[in-house]
Design brief:
MetI-like fold, 69% helix
């Protein structure tokens, strides 16, 4: 009698278990999230493959004889892999190893110098209080409005008078100070709470200890992002070495890549592409090492 009058109670057929409904809703949400991931993932994978096509062509061409580099239709996988292209690039008469070492030397010193100057200057503009701080910072930012090409001739004359022309220091010293690096680090330190510094001062810490032990460890993601950007800019820099270097033994890798020509003076595509493949390996290694911190820095910058 009770089950007939109240069909939603007990074990009658009209009873609905709330747990069953919750499980069904969760399963539906999981299916929807999976569909959204596929809806976004497939176009992104297709786009990524399109961006990788030039790199695939570069690797394929580096393993071909020159006569097959521009054959139509294109053959992505060579019938006979020409590994001699890499041997000639590394150990031949025009080896890129000296230029590779010069590029590594320049890039490392520029990265270290940029990180030192940018973090110190960014912290000073963000956390130190001195007269004219904002005016000096705005004036420093205004220098970025001057085109870099406009400064090539004054820099050339200046380095020539200092005796630094045709030396790697003509590339290293200007790369140690950039407006963008100081701006990025200043914006990061501005976003950090000032209570950290106040508590440290109460404990007797000086300004450098506050910077070194409190704020600098928190800035590691942004420092990693800046290191990657500085390394890539230095590694790919072609204009400055072209202007300030004249001796082949001082050439960096971008200049050395222009030396691979055939007997007619035209570019030798197989050898040139082999050298290009070798030249991008350090950039990939640096990015893979700092990838997590780079993504973290970009995400935090976007959220702030």
């Amino acid at each position: 009698m009770t089950d007939t009058l109240h069909p939603t109670r007990g074990t009658s057929t009209g009873h609905v278990d709330p747990r069953t409904g919750t499980a069904a809703r969760d399963a539906l949400h999981r299916r929807r999230r999976r569909l959204r991931r596929w809806a976004w993932g497939i176009p992104l994978w297709i786009l990524a493959l399109l961006f990788l096509l030039p790199f695939a062509w570069m690797i394929s061409t580096s393993l071909k004889p020159d006569v097959e580099a521009f054959s139509v239709p294109m053959q992505w996988i060579p019938d006979d892999f020409r590994w001699a292209n890499y041997t000639e690039v590394l150990f031949g008469e025009g080896s890129i190893l000296p230029a590779f070492g010069n590029s590594v030397f320049v890039a490392l010193l520029r990265v270290l110098g940029e990180l030192a100057t940018a973090t110190l200057a960014g912290y000073a503009f963000a956390k130190l209080h001195f007269r004219g701080r904002n005016v000096v910072f705005i004036g420093y930012l205004a220098t970025s409005l001057i085109p870099a090409q406009l400064l090539l001739v004054p820099r050339f004359v200046y380095f020539q008078q200092l005796g630094l022309y045709d030396s790697l220091w003509a590339l290293i010293l200007p790369g140690m100070f950039t407006v963008l690096g100081t701006f990025l680090m200043r914006q990061f330190f501005v976003s950090q709470p000032g209570e950290f510094a106040e508590a440290a001062r109460l404990d007797g810490a000086n300004e450098f200890q506050i910077f070194w032990r409190i704020y600098l460890p928190n800035a590691l993601p942004m420092i990693s992002a800046l290191a990657i950007l500085t390394f890539v800019w230095s590694w790919n820099d072609y204009e400055s070495p072209l202007v300030f270097l004249s001796s082949p033994e001082n050439f960096t890798l971008p200049l050395a890549l222009t030396n691979f020509t055939d007997e007619t003076g035209a570019m030798a595509p197989g050898i040139a592409m082999a050298a290009a493949v070798i030249s991008i390996i350090p950039i990939l290694v640096v990015f893979l090492i700092f990838q997590r911190r780079f993504v973290q820095a970009m995400t935090e910058s976007a959220l702030k």
